Amino acid sequence: MDIMYLLVPLSVVLVFFILGGAWWAIYRGQFEDIEKEGERILKD
Predict the structure, then answer these.
(1) Per-residue pLDDT reduced to its tens digit, 1-44
(2) Helix (H, G, I), strand (E, B), or coil: what is residue 28?
(3) Which pLDDT does position 6 carry in this prediction?
(4) What share of the chain is helix, strand, coil (3-state, %, to 5)?
């Protein structure tokens, strides 16, 4: 049971990092016009 005192806060921190990374990617426009990038790679 003692390990839960370590794992629960670490998992909460991990969730915040994941949400922060997703927010950053959306804010910076990483998911804008996904099809264009796939076509660009094939044409090069």
Answers:
(1) 889 999 999 999 999 999 999 999 999 988 887 777 778 878 76
(2) coil
(3) 96
(4) 75, 0, 25
> What is the spatial distance between Cα 40 and Cα 22, in angstroms, rounded to a whole number?
24
pLDDT at 44: 65
Structure tokens that stand for 39 in this block: 């076509």
Contact 31, 23 (CB under 8 A): no
Q: How is residue 16 written in tokens?
A: 């915040």
φ, ψ of residue 23 to 5 degrees: the values are -60, -40
Cα 37 from Cα 39, distance rounded (Å): 5
